[in-house]
Structures are given as C-alpha cells and as structure tokens.
Amino acid sequence: MLDQIVRWMQIIGTFMEFLLLLRMLILRFQRVYLFLTLYAVINFLVDASIILVGTESDPGNRIFFYSRFLFAVVYPLAAWDVFEEAKAQVSKIRRIHLPRLVSGMFITFLLGIATSFGIEDQYFKGTSTSTDFMGLFLWLGAASTSLLFTWNVFRTSRKGDVLLPSNTSVWAVFFLITFARAVIDCGFDVAGGLLPHGAFQVINAILLLFDLSLITWCLVRLKPLSPDVTSAPEKARS
C-alpha cells in the first residue's frame, strides 16, 4: 500500500514539474532565466524517464546515477541564474562570491577523482560503484557550493537593503530549498539501504510531499516579467 502511495506521489510530483516548466515557458522566462529553464527541462525529463522505465529497475537506476553528473553542472549555472532578473542590483555581489562557487566546484571535482581511485569497482544494478560514488560526490559538492553561493548573495542583498524583484526572491527560496534537499537526498541515497523498507518509504513519502508543496508554492508566487526586463540578446538588437 505504502509503495503504491509513494509511486503515485512520484507521478504527481513529475506532473507538477511539468506544470512549473509550462508556466515558465508561458511567462517566457527563458528570455531571462535561461539556465533555470534548462534545469526545469532536465529535472522533468529525468524524473519522467525514471518513472517510465521503473524506479526500481536497472535502467531507472542508471538514469538516476548518470543524471547526477548532469545536475552537478546545472546546479551552479542555476545558482548564478537565480539573480539574473536583478543583475543590475546584485552584479557586484555576485562577482564577489563567484570565485568561491568556481573554486568549490573545482576542489569537489579533484577530490571526487582522487577518492574514486580507492574504490573497488563492482557492478550493482547496472552501474559501477566508482561511477555511483563519483556521481553522488559531484552532485553533493555542486549542491553544497550552489547552496552557499545562493545564500550568500541573497543574504548580502537583503542586508544591503537591495530591492529584489518578486521572482528573484521566489527563485532564491526555491533553489535554496532545492539545493538543501539535494544534500539530504545524497545522504538518504547512501544510508537508505540501512533502513527497513517501511521506514525508507515513509521518509520518502514525507520528502515527496514537501516537494509537492514547494512546487505548488512556486507556481502560485511566480509573476510575469516586467516589460523593461529583457535578455542580453534582445538588448543588443534594440
């Protein structure tokens, strides 16, 4: 029974991700938030693919672990893009914190390669243990550095009395929680096998319910872009 509830929550969550992507396209957010739109596309396609092939199947397991490498690249880009609508107000703040974001990802990549050499390579559910570890390590590092970057820029902006657009505040909160959720997920994926199946599914259901609430909140709070907010290519042509 609990397994069926979790599966339906995953399906509903994926549908909600599609609605979020659709709303972003309708509001033409891709003009300004290119990497956020890219994140929404990838997130929906990955989750939809896993559901289609089966969350417990070997193909689903491979999609999950290989997609961690993709998210490790997309997360820092999304963290930078969160403030794109307010780039005139926070350009200096973003530049101050950018070196930490870049160096954090570089150190994570080096540590991931170094530590993966010490893992005995075995195959489990269609992927090797070294690939699984590397994907999770990079995913965790990207989520952590992106979380710190987003938090530092958002906090500094608020402390400096910078008036942020409504969408910027919504995206900042959304991705702060998303990055923190990824850190929790990483630990959950590693330690989940030690939990009884029932306890694992209960925690999974709670996290999925939280995801549904977050996406619903984001859908309600997002507003159309101001007419004077244009992308860089559009400004160049004007």
Structural commentary:
The chain has 238 residues and is an all-alpha fold. The chain has a single domain (2-222), classed as Rhopdopsin 7-helix transmembrane proteins (Up-down Bundle). It is built from eight helices and two strands; from the N terminus they run ααααββαααα. It has a two-stranded antiparallel sheet with strand order 1-2. Helix 4 (87-116) packs antiparallel against helix 5 (129-159). It is globular, with a radius of gyration of 19 Å. The model is unreliable at 231-238 (pLDDT under 50).
Which descriptors would you attach to this protein?
single chain, 238 residues, mainly alpha, Rhopdopsin 7-helix transmembrane proteins, 8 helices, 2 strands, disordered C terminus
What is the element layout, followed by pairings?
Elements: H1 2-26, H2 34-53, H3 58-81, H4 87-116, E1 123-124, E2 127-128, H5 129-159, H6 166-191, H7 197-221, H8 232-237
Antiparallel strand pairs: 1-2
Largest sheet: 2 strands, antiparallel
Distance between the termini: 58 Å
| Alpha-beta classification | mainly alpha
* Total DSSP E strands: 2
Please give the CATH class.
Mainly Alpha
Question: Could you give a quick summary of the protein structure above?
Answer:
The chain is mainly alpha-helical. The protein has helices at residues 2-26, 34-53, 58-81, 87-116, 129-159, 166-191, 197-221, 232-237, and strands at 123-124, 127-128.
